[in-house]
Design brief:
Number of domains: 2
Strand order of the largest sheet: 4-3-2-1-9-8-7-6-5
Number of strands: 17
Largest sheet: 9 strands, antiparallel
Shape: elongated
Number of helices: 1
CATH class of the largest domain: Mainly Beta
Distance between the termini: 26 Å
CATH topology of the largest domain: Lipocalin
């Protein structure tokens, strides 16, 4: 992504105000993705989430690590594909996130593609959990936040758009900051009880009919 890096270097003097940003100014939840280039430089994308689930992206590179650039989101599709621009630059870059995949791919204006791999996030043992059912259907839970502001999202391989569930009856667990809680789908009164595994990373989902599903942790 030499052109991607070139734009940052050329315009960095225009963005000196962004240098005042630090992790203290980031939203509560964010993921850090890095791309290690052949020339030895490292580019970093911070995918941020505010308390309402609104997404954002911050870019920085190892050539000028103190300079952080807030990228402009031009449009997005289902929280998976984001077309972004650098400040004062009309060229489009397309970021694609993958459901339950720990990476972001970036398609540059010249058509080249880079992969940014997940390094860490601020959620501890929060993250994405997957259930593979007997009929081969796949369901996902995305758990974010803390007990005071727990956000739970759901999707499946047949309905890949994330749905935000209502959360209630939260009870703190004894280890790894995992919690017990109930979730309800939009426009439904049916509760599903979610409980952390006693060992390992995952959650059991107790269904209204008494059945049970196991959601295994797959990535942060």
């Amino acid at each position: 992504m030499t052109k991607f890096l070139f734009h940052i270097i050329i315009f960095s003097f225009l963005f000196h105000r962004v240098q005042a940003q630090s992790t203290k100014a980031y939203p509560s939840f964010y993921e850090v993705f890095t791309c290690k280039n052949a020339n030895g430089s490292i580019e970093t994308l911070l995918a941020t989430f505010d308390n309402n689930g609104k997404r954002g992206f911050i870019y920085k590179n190892s050539k000028n690590p103190k300079n952080e650039v807030l990228l402009k989101i031009i449009r997005n599709t289902d929280d998976e594909v984001f077309v972004i621009q650098f400040p004062n630059n009309s060229k489009n870059y397309t970021l694609k996130t993958c459901i339950a995949c720990p990476e972001i791919t970036c398609t540059n204006p010249d058509g080249t593609v880079q992969t940014f791999n997940l390094e860490y996030n601020t959620w501890g043992n929060r993250g994405t959990y997957r259930c593979i059912n007997a009929d081969k259907s796949i369901e996902y839970l995305r758990i974010e936040g803390s007990a005071n502001n727990l956000v739970v999202k759901y999707c499946s391989n047949t309905k890949p758009k994330w749905i935000t569930l209502s959360v209630s009856n939260i009870k703190a667990g004894e280890m790894d900051n995992l919690h017990f809680f109930d979730v309800t789908f939009p426009n439904s009164k049916t509760n599903y009880r979610i409980e952390p595994y006693t060992t390992g990373y995952g959650y059991n989902c107790w269904l209204p009919n008494g059945g049970q599903q196991g959601f295994e942790w797959i990535n942060k």
